[in-house]
Design goal:
Distance between the termini: 51 Å
Structural class: alpha/beta
Number of helices: 11
Radius of gyration: 32 Å
Strand order of the largest sheet: 4-3-5-10-6-9
Shape: rod-shaped
Mean pLDDT: 89
Helix content: 40-55%
Length: about 290
């Protein structure tokens, strides 16, 4: 349905109201008086209403004209606000970004990246969701998250991905554990120990389960916990060992030992296949890839 007016005609209408006449309005708008008069005449024709009483030396608003003033001011204010919002988004002054990060990366890899991006774009609001890798993939695919970090494997092939990092999974043991001084730990030696593992749905657990299948080993699960501080406390107290990304193990009471052969994970920044990336989202992708 076509509207009987546009923003330009409403702007001219208000100029006539505010300046008390066609001549003064024309001067304020840098238009010819005839152009202003014609714009008002066209507006009245489209509305099928008289907006002004035209007297010999002055004009006054009709009842209908008075009713239009408030609506016109509101519409123009909203249009200005919309224009400002679009300009701010275009210049990355404002915006919102929903990012999903696996637990280990959220605590040990991403904080400097997120803070660096926030410092560069302080007006963009960041919402960070920490969850298991597979749940994050579903949230991205369903459009509930704009971006997320995923394990680059067969289960993430339905997402658009950009390689972000290659991280080593290592065995985490107490510093005084017999395995701590080895140059490498075989899967068989790893599975001979009681293990502290994440629950299903986390790549930590999937990594251990896949390694067990490859070596036909039976995992001796002593504890299940998705809480990294708790898992590390259990390992420090000698109740089991686990596997983490190498950077997670960097503390005096724990040792990080490579698997034999070493185990690496490819991590990618991902978004929904075919999804349009906003300016804020594209800015984060570019920033993350530049600082990987």
């Amino acid at each position: 349905m076509a509207l009987p007016f546009d923003l330009r005609s409403l702007s001219v209408f208000l100029a006539v109201v505010d300046h008390g006449g066609f001549s003064a309005a024309a001067r304020s708008l840098h238009l010819a008086q005839s152009a202003v008069s014609q714009t008002i005449a066209n507006l009245e024709h489209r509305l099928d209403l008289a907006l002004f009483h035209r007297h010999e030396r002055r004009i006054t608003l009709t009842t209908e004209g008075e009713a239009l003033v408030g609506h016109a001011r509101d519409l123009l204010a909203r249009a200005d606000a919309a224009h400002l919002a679009m300009r701010e988004l275009n210049e990355l002054v404002k915006g919102e970004l929903r990012i999903g990060i696996p637990s280990m990366l959220g605590s040990y890899y991403f904080p400097p990246l997120l803070m660096g991006f926030k410092a560069r774009h302080p007006g963009i609001r960041l919402t960070v969701v920490e969850a298991g890798a597979r749940r994050l993939q579903r949230l991205i695919a369903d459009g509930e998250l704009d971006l997320g970090v995923v394990i680059d494997d067969g289960a993430s092939r339905h997402l658009t991905r950009q390689p972000l990092a290659r991280e080593e999974m290592v065995v985490c043991v107490p510093r005084d554990h017999p395995l701590a001084d080895r140059s490498g730990i075989t899967p068989e030696a790893f599975f001979a120990e009681p293990l502290v593992v994440f629950q299903d749905g986390y790549f930590h657990r999937e990594f251990i389960d896949a390694l067990a299948r490859e070596t036909s080993a039976d995992a001796q699960v002593a504890f299940e916990s998705n809480l990294i501080p708790l898992t590390k406390a259990i390992v420090r107290q000698g109740f089991g060992i686990t596997t983490f990304l190498r950077r997670v193990v960097e503390e005096p009471e724990l040792a990080a030992v490579s698997f034999d052969p070493p185990a690496w994970l490819s991590l990618s920044l991902a978004w929904k296949e075919g999804a349009y990336l906003s300016r804020a989202e594209r800015a984060f992708v570019d920033f993350a890839l530049a600082h990987r």
